[in-house]
Design goal:
Helices cover 30% and strands 17% of the residues. It is an alpha/beta fold and 612 residues long. Strand 6, helix 12 and strand 7 form a beta-alpha-beta unit. Bound molecules: flavin-adenine dinucleotide (FAD) and iron/sulfur cluster (SF4) (3 copies).
Length: 612
């Protein structure tokens, strides 16, 4: 092919441009008057540290690995957040905006600013704050589209019996997740571990949720048992404080961590536990430990100590292990099968549980000490209390635990029918009040085909009441009549017959310093007619089994025994304590105490062996 030859003078033609105005803009000019970017421009990042919880989800999604989470020493290490913030490497960032789209709190955004000129490469590695890279935080550029979300913010709905069925039934009302529901719920978790610090037992929540997602329930069961030997009970009754800090809860509904735990144990047959868990017992020393009280704390200590190879005997006053929930917790919330499932695995490890044996009556603590190296006491707050008001000594005025136990024994077919009132007044606004009210309402409906249960609390609104919101909502649906903001004056008794309770209006529950110090309007009163009253005003411990010298030398403040962080009782090195008598107020704190005490007891026994 012939190509035309270029003229010899062709290069010289370029000289003509010397006199023309350049079309490119000098850098200095751009810096002085940068052109404003379009509305959805993906410029530099800004991050509101007041909102950012350091969950690291932005870092996980970044397709170019441009985000590194950086620990910030000055940040407090508190529940619900991690002391770290995202840093962006602008050498890698492709400005895709995915981190902004997924940010769990909405703290991460982008401005319209797009210029950063520097010879220092370190300045391209930047930890965004609210100030932005050059202190220019407005105008905002790319922000998350409110119509679509990379996070799944809605919780899987749990099947629960409708109120018309519930109000005449003691059968467990929450049905549990199906496999499809559990996997969908698990898929919402961003595996940030934020919840684990808040769980008193520090369960490895993100791990077992992932096990559900990958349908590996056997590993899930192993993950549960690393820190909690009562998963069937906790999967139903745990106070689930972890869910209050769940990262997804910042913009949507928190992950149903408690129900997911239950899903694992509901779907593995009990007789497969020993084979699946296949736990190794490491016998470090020949030592015996006696445990007083087979509640969550005692059972948890027994489990962890038995894995250490110690010989464990648990002494329990009642006819079955489980603690106060086993004789007080209503079966529509906690079926017997849940405790049986958890306890039978603990027993399979060689733990001996002796029921119907009250320490201090059937056997003394000194006798136990003579037979054992260490004693762990976890006897709970198991004495009901009544208010010392006029008429409270009437035989139809009950404390919460007495009536709950009577009702439970009857429902189990193990006790006589309790007195079923036509109208019941429950005094108190906590979860125990709800258990009493909702249990008696069921018995009334079964007996009389109608119910009348009044719950009166000092707290003046449902928000102030200590009971869980679910309990209040479900109680209302079943027919419980709530009267917030009333304090009892006296129980009205006429000719020996209980007639009702006189209440006065409560105008303030706590004083300015946050102390419980109720104030009343004496001129504003009501009378609620009733033929039974239950006072749910807290429980008390019973330390009569502790020998006098120990009672004298042990520090007990507001009913709680003082121990070191491993549950070792101050001044009595062979005595450990845990659960409600040390911390409380729930099952999972008892489980955590049992675990800690097992570690302390192990250290104590090993130190003694070494000193021999
Ligand atoms: C009605 C009710 C409902 C509750 N609901 C919930 C809930 O939904 N979720 C939650 O997390 N928590 C709940 N709690 C609180 C929870 O039950 C307790 O925090 C937890 O059981 C404490 O465990 P523990 O092992 O310390 O003691 P406990 O469970 O009280 O167990 C102590 C055990 O020691 C035994 N014992 C006592 N003295 C002796 C003795 N001298 N000799 C031998 N045995 C003895 C008792 O019989 C008992 O079995 C509820 C409590 C009540 C009362
Ligand atoms: S996703 Fe949002 S809240 Fe979580 S670390 Fe990143 S910026 Fe912070
Ligand atoms: S904009 Fe995209 S590439 Fe840049 S840091 Fe965010 S996720 Fe990573
Ligand atoms: S349950 Fe919530 S807080 Fe816990 S790991 Fe999952 S997303 Fe994070």
């Amino acid at each position: 092919m012939n190509t035309p030859e270029k003229s010899f003078f062709a290069p010289a033609r370029a000289w003509k441009y010397l006199s023309k105005k350049p079309v490119t803009v000098p850098m200095e000019d751009i810096l002085i008057t940068p052109r404003e970017a379009s509305d959805r421009y993906r410029g530099f990042h800004i991050n509101d540290w007041g909102k950012c919880i350091g969950c690291g989800t932005c870092s996980k999604i970044c397709p170019t690995d441009a985000i590194t989470m950086v620990e910030i020493e000055e940040l407090p290490d508190v529940e619900g957040s991690k002391p770290q913030k995202p840093s962006i490497d602008y050498g890698r960032c492709s400005f895709c905006g995915l981190c902004v789209d997924i940010c769990t709190t909405g703290s991460l955004q982008m401005t319209k600013e797009y210029l950063h000129i520097s010879k220092d490469p370190n300045t391209f590695f930047f930890i965004p704050t609210e100030e932005g890279i050059h202190g220019i935080k407005k105008p905002l550029g790319y922000v998350r589209d409110e119509d679509s979300d990379l996070l799944d913010l809605e919780r899987e709905e749990m099947e629960i019996d409708p109120p018309e069925i519930r109000k005449t039934s003691f059968i467990e009302m929450v049905k549990g997740f199906s496999k499809e529901q559990a996997v969908r719920e698990a898929s919402r978790c961003v595996e940030c571990n934020i919840c684990e610090k808040t769980c008193p037992a520090h369960m490895n929540i993100a791990d077992y949720i992932k096990d559900i997602y990958t349908d590996d329930l056997q590993t899930g069961l192993k993950d549960l048992y690393k820190t909690n030997p009562l998963p069937a009970v906790c999967g139903r009754m745990c106070t689930h404080k972890c869910e209050t800090v769940c990262t997804i809860g910042h913009r949507g509904e928190p992950i149903a961590i408690r129900w997911l735990k239950r899903y694992i144990v509901d779907n593995i047959p009990q007789d497969k536990y020993p084979e699946i868990l296949d736990q190794e017992v490491i016998k470090k020393a020949n030592a015996k430990v006696a445990i007083v009280g087979a509640g969550p704390a005692g059972l948890s200590a027994a489990y962890f100590l038995s894995l250490m190879g110690f010989e464990i005997t648990v002494y329990e006053e009642k006819n079955r292990p489980g603690g106060v929930l086993n004789y007080g917790g209503p079966s529509y919330r906690l079926p017997d099968s849940a405790f049986e499932q958890d306890v039978s695995y603990i027993k399979s490890l060689g733990v001996k549980i002796i029921t119907n044996t009250k320490v201090g009556k059937d056997i003394t603590l000194e006798e136990l000490k003579a037979k054992n190296d260490v004693i762990f006491v976890s006897t709970g707050f198991n004495k009901g209390r009544k208010l010392p008001i006029e008429g409270s000594d009437h035989e139809k005025v009950f404390d919460s635990l007495t009536i709950l136990e009577e009702m439970k024994n009857y429902v189990r077919g193990e006790g006589p029918k309790p007195y079923i009132p036509k109208s019941l007044v429950v005094i108190g606004g906590g979860n125990v009040a709800m258990d009493v009210a909702r249990s008696m309402l069921r018995l009334q409906n079964l007996e009389y085909k109608k119910s009348e249960v009044h719950v009166l609390s000092l707290e003046r609104s449902f928000d102030e009441m200590p009971a869980d919101e679910d309990e209040i909502v479900e109680g209302k649906e079943e027919g419980v009549i709530f009267h917030p903001g009333w304090g009892p004056v006296k129980v009205i008794v006429e000719n020996g017959e209980l007639k009702g309770v006189l209440f006065r209006k409560c105008v303030e529950v706590f004083d300015k310093n946050g102390r419980f110090n109720p104030k009343y309007d004496e001129n504003n009163t009501i009378t609620i007619n009733a033929d039974m009253v239950v006072m749910t005003v807290g429980q008390a411990p019973d330390y009569s089994y502790l020998p006098e010298d120990i009672q004298k030398n042990t520090k007990i403040e507001r009913g709680k025994i003082k121990t070191n962080e491993y549950g070792q009782v101050e001044g009595v090195p062979w005595l450990f304590a845990g659960g409600d008598i040390v911390h409380g107020p729930d099952i999972i704190h008892g489980v955590a105490d049992g675990h800690k005490a097992a570690q302390g007891i192990d250290q104590y026994i090993m130190a003694k062996q070494l000193s021999k």
